[in-house]
Amino acid sequence: MKKFVFTLLLVFVCHLGYAQSINGLFNEFGSEKNADCVKVSSFMMSLGKMFAGHDEDAEIIRKIKSIKVLDLESCTASVKERFSKKVNRLSLKGYDELMRVNDEGEKVRVLMKTKKETIRELLFVCTGKEDCTLVQINGKFTKEDIDKLVNQETKKKHGRR
Asked: Which controlled-vocabulary keywords does the entry list (predicted)?
């Protein structure tokens, strides 16, 4: 019985160590040749907030703490494939899935991490043969903020203001 419990514990610990973190993906793939990796720190965001206007976009911008973007569009197919495999093994404990799209091999997932009623992190993960992108937005948003932003962007897209 002790051997069984020890083996089970060992498998569990190995599985935890095998799981990739979001920051690990940024670190690993951000240095790949032709990868675009942009990290806007909380200090830079606070400087940008000083120049934000007073419209609805500015309200959302003020709630953003930091942004990280990783774009592998110009990378080789092997880098994109490796990224996709790592994303599939990604440990997403603590995240809630908002949306999942699979369109002709291009997969998009939108996830959020909340604390009580506040959204603390939004995560956009795109994988496919053509484009692999990871976007992480940290801040303090409400669900109403996200709803406003989606409605506002939908109106812009359809030519209504």
From this structure: Signal
